[in-house]
UniProtKB/TrEMBL annotation:
Species of the source: Olea europaea subsp. europaea
Highest taxon, organism lineage: Eukaryota
Pfam family membership, one: Raffinose_syn
Protein name as it appears in the record: Stachyose synthase-like
This protein's UniProt keywords: Carbohydrate metabolism
UniProt xrefs under InterPro entries: Glycosyl_hydrolases_36 (IPR008811)
Amino acid sequence: MLNGIRRRKQLKWESEDDKLLVITCNSKAIPITLQPFIFEVFSFVPIKKLSLAVKFGPVGLTNMFNSEGTIEGLVFSETSVGIELKGEGNFLAYSSMSPKKCYLNGA
């Protein structure tokens, strides 16, 4: 377990493999092997419990090197999530339930 990461569940995003995993503090160790001149960016994102049934974790814009850094604003309530992003691209988030509505720039 990484120092400072104490939440029960979180996301692990692997940029080059385009892989999103839900992990816990009790998850098995994740083996990592890198070939020479190859890199991988790992992002660890906390999963927030919005209600008894809904959990949410935003990764950000996955086409950017620092995907989490593209999130400029984040507002949670029991029934909705508002996100402000810097840049353009592919947004990735984890949700334990499918959203009922999605808006982009208010539409």
